[in-house]
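Recall that a protein's primary structure is simply its ordered list of amino acids. Everything else, from secondary elements to tertiary packing, is in principle encoded there. The following example makes that idea concrete.
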Amino acid sequence: MIRADTFVRPSLQKESSSPYKKILSDWLPAVSISGILIFLTLYYSSGMQGLRVGKMLALICASGFLWGWIVGRYVTPSAGYLMIVATISSVGAGFGEIHARSLVFAWSAGAIVLIASKMPLKTVHVFLWALLATGIVEAIHGYLQMAGLDPIFERTSEATSWIPVGTLGQQTLYGPFMVCACATALFLAPMALVLLLPVTVATCSSMTFVSLGMVLVIYLYYQGGIRWIAYASVAAALTLSILAVLGCINPLFDDHGRYELWGTLLSLWKNKPFFGYGIGSFQLLGPLAEPQHLVKEHGYFLQAHNDYLQVLFETGILGAFGVLWALASVIKATIKNIKSPTACLLASIFGSLAANALASFPFHIAPLAFLGLVSWALLVTLRHKEKDAEV
């Protein structure tokens, strides 16, 4: 019989059942930190208008730190750390309209992570099958688009009218979503790959191929260890060499101005290396700093097309450290649960999006960010769920 656990991790269930001790251990440190922040913010404000602004910022700081404490306590410390960094970043940058939207997005991400971490194992499997079903529907939609029977979008360019984009409206976004569906099919229903894989490859997106490669690496490691990964790497190198000789690799890996954009981004980051320019600031500062010839060739970049560099630009070294910490927790959880197909499937979903983020922005797109956050939260708390299921 499965025990109905309270809102605590299994590792914490041996603590005293006294409600007073629980309040002191769980909430007193967070409330104390919030109180100190309120005092400091009000202390450094001047005048009535400054006092009003100080109260608002104090409330934001207190809420952000309290939220970060909760997420860090009940999910994983890296998640709480990122919530706190997001709060500091938004307030330190001036808390304008763009910072407010980004902070709400970050706090909503914390809510998704918290809810996913409490999802029982049976519900996890329901979520994975639902992802596979959604991928099948998206695949059918993609085939209709390739046949010129798109029921939603009207293409204006005949050159790309056959490329599937699904309901996401762009192949560079549709591709990583379909890779997540392919990863799910690989572990749950391999026959579904007959339907899913061709339309995924048809996106002709280089980062989609990179994401597929990440899924393959994790699956081979799950099946046979490092030996099969070595074989796959050699096969990939030979395939890329053949494509280069045939002249097919250049259109697949066209950077579309990304390299120059990243160089500009890094040169600006050096001016504020530790705290960055504030969460969400790239949408304002990126287009202003973009070289004019890139604007003429590719238009304005509202995203850095590299989620890691964008985090570095917006939140500095503090935020980049949090992201690396979160990635390390994924690697640790995958290694510990390498014999679990559920763990490897979740690692494949998150890993494919993490690889795609090297030259795209999946964690800034709601459906892709949702998949990444849920798979990450489920993976880092999977051992607790499996222990509960055994009770």
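DSSP finds 18 helices and no strands in the chain. Confidence is low (pLDDT under 50) at residues 1-17, 46-51, 244-252.
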